[in-house]
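Need a sequence for this fold. Nothing fancy.
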């Protein structure tokens, strides 16, 4: 599997900041882009996807697609990006392989949409030679997925409480770390996000005054081995 070209780590303290960061990212996404979204229950995946939808200018009302696997949110002609891509939102947690991803025919929508796949790591990489991976880490309340990409069980937290909701409905405004990694030629460089700048001075922060942002780090590349 290819290594990321760069990695960017950002701190957000509230649901509103998570939404705003995702909206800035959504504004630079284009038709055919693939985004893999990871984070345990309550990390804010739905909040993040709602922000992406705002930045893309698609129909509002984004909720988790857990029970239907795929939801398509069409571009709004009267929105901020008329004629732009739709948003295809996928929950792959119950899909066990890339073959099961192929069964839902995402290839047929990728030429007209941005595709966001929750729990998509090791399942969707074959869909495109470029992708963004986004991880949301909570400061507390559940194991987080690390660099190895092992997801926490979304059905339970370490104390056995299965009632934690995504913080867009639970209003659980604890700090989150959002890690974004770029893969492939489409993401050879980290995108410039409107209102978001790498940290240069201690006071540099998210727009509207929040935690400082970590600077984007290019990652060393290692040759892929033929097995």
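Here you go.
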């Amino acid at each position: 599997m290819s290594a990321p070209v760069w990695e960017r780590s950002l701190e957000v303290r509230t649901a509103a900041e998570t939404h705003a960061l995702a909206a800035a990212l959504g504004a630079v996404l284009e038709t055919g882009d693939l985004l893999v979204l990871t984070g345990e229950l309550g990390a804010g995946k739905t909040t993040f996807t709602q922000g992406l939808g705002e930045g893309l200018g698609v129909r509002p009302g984004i909720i988790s697609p857990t029970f239907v696997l795929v939801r398509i949110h069409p571009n709004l002609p009267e929105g901020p990006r008329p004629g732009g891509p739709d948003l295809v939102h996928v929950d792959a947690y119950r899909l066990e392989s890339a073959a099961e991803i192929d069964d839902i025919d995402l290839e047929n929508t990728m030429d007209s949409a941005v595709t966001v796949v929750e729990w998509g790591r090791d399942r969707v990489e074959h869909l495109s030679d470029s992708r963004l991976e986004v991880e949301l880490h909570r400061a507390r309340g559940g194991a987080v997925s690390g660099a190895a990409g092992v997801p926490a069980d979304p059905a339970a937290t370490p104390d056995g409480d299965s009632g934690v909701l995504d913080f867009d409905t639970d209003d659980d405004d604890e700090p989150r770390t959002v890690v974004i990694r770029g893969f492939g030629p489409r993401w050879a460089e980290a995108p410039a996000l409107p209102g978001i700048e790498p940290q240069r001075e201690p006071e540099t922060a998210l727009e509207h005054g929040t935690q400082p942002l970590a600077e984007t780090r290019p990652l060393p590349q290692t040759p892929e081995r033929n097995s």
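For context: The helical segments are 15-26, 45-56, 98-103, 167-170.
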